[in-house]
User: Fold this.
Amino acid sequence: MLCNKLLAIKKALAEGTLTKIMRTVLGWLIDTTRALTIGLTKDKFVAWSADIKRILHKCACSHRVSYDNLKMLVGCLQHVANVLVPANHFFSHLQAAEARAKRYRYTHLKAFKQDNLHLFLQVFLVKAQAGTNMNLPPDF
Assistant:
């Protein structure tokens, strides 16, 4: 009888222990403990930040962005907009620019669209890398 009680205590302690499990899924670090957070990996953050800076530099020099460059950037930022829902509002302008570039091979990014890219660079990507709770709306 005493043996069964000891086994039950061991089992209860093992089930109640939280082991921190970090998994990388599609470039996102997912913490599966009770915190349940999701954050962008360092390499994706660096790469996507560099892509935004490169497009902003092209806009400053030639005021034109090719469809291929914009398509690649919109694809990356779609991941951020899916995790950080408030980013969708600013993301729709970039999707419209991508659609225009698809038709004409190039497009001009107006100042407010460039400002949206700056916002993604300075706020949304930083917040995505820091991580956010999947159960709560993101706090900015």
Remarks:
- The two ends are 56 Å apart (CA to CA).
- The chain has a mean pLDDT of 84.
